[in-house]
Amino acid sequence: MKLKNLIIVALLLAIGTVLHAVFPGIIFGMKSDLGLVMLFLSLFLFADIKTFVIIGLVDGILAGLTTSMPGGFFPNVIDKLVTSTVVFLVIYLFAHYFQAKGKYVFGVVLAGLGTVLSGTIFLTMAILVAGMNSAAFGALFITMVLPTALANLVLFAVLYPIIVKIGERSGFLKTLPKPTLH
C-alpha cells in the first residue's frame, strides 16, 4: 500500500474511532458501531491482499479501546478481524464485475450486510468471551445490530461518493477512463 493511501486509511479509521468513542452506550453498555463504515470504506477503496488483515486488526483494537461494554475489547478485535476478512474477500471476488453505479450499490449493500455480520460476531463473542447472557442475543440483535446496519448503510451511501470525488480531484484515487464510441 502506498504511503498516501496508508495515511488516508489511518485518517478514516481515526474518524471511525472518534465516532465510536462519542456515541453513547445504550443497552448493557453497547453502542452502535458507526466506525464500521470507515472500515468498509478503507477496505473498499484502499485495501489489498497484503493489508486487509492489518486494517481489520487496527480497527478492532481501536474499537476495543473505545467500547463502553465491560469485557468488550476482545469481542471487538475478533469481530473486526473476521468481518474485515470476509468483507475484503467478497470485495476481492466480486467488485471487479461492476461498473461505477453497480460498484456503488454493491458497496452500500455490503456495508449493511457487513454490519449485520459484525454485530452477529460481536454478540457471539460477547457471550462466549465476556460472559454476556445468551438470552439477550435476540433482543440485542433486533435493537442494536439491525438499526446500526441501516445507519451504516445510509452513512456509507452518503460518504462513498464524497470520498471518491475528493479522491479523484486530489489524485489519490484513479478512475477508469470513460468508454468511448468509435
How would you describe the overall organization of this protein?
- With 182 residues, this protein is an all-alpha fold.
- The chain has one domain: Arp2/3 complex 21 kDa subunit ARPC3.
- 71% of the residues lie in helices and 0% in strands.
- The chain is built from 6 helices and no strands.
- It has helices at 3-22, 36-45, 52-65, 73-94, 100-128, 137-170.
- Helix 1 (3-22) runs antiparallel to helix 2 (36-45), helix 4 runs antiparallel to helix 5 (100-128) and helix 5 runs antiparallel to helix 6.
- The relative contact order is 0.14.
- Mean pLDDT is 88; it is low at 176-182.
Summarize the structure.
The protein is mostly helical and 182 residues long. It has six helices and no strands.
CATH topology: Arp2/3 complex 21 kDa subunit ARPC3
State the CATH architecture: Orthogonal Bundle
- H/E order of the elements? HHHHHH
Average the pLDDT over all residues and give the rounded result.
88
Helix content: over 70%
* Total beta strand runs: 0
Q: Which class do the helix and strand fractions yield?
A: mainly alpha
Largest sheet: none
Measured by DSSP, the beta-strand proportion falls in: under 5%
Runs in which pLDDT lies below 50 for 5 or more consecutive residues are 176-182
User: In CATH, what is the class?
Assistant: Mainly Alpha
Based on Cα principal axes, name the global outline. Answer: globular
Number of structural domains: 1
| Computed CA radius of gyration, to the nearest angstrom | 17 Å
- How far from one another are the termini? 36 Å
Number of helices: 6
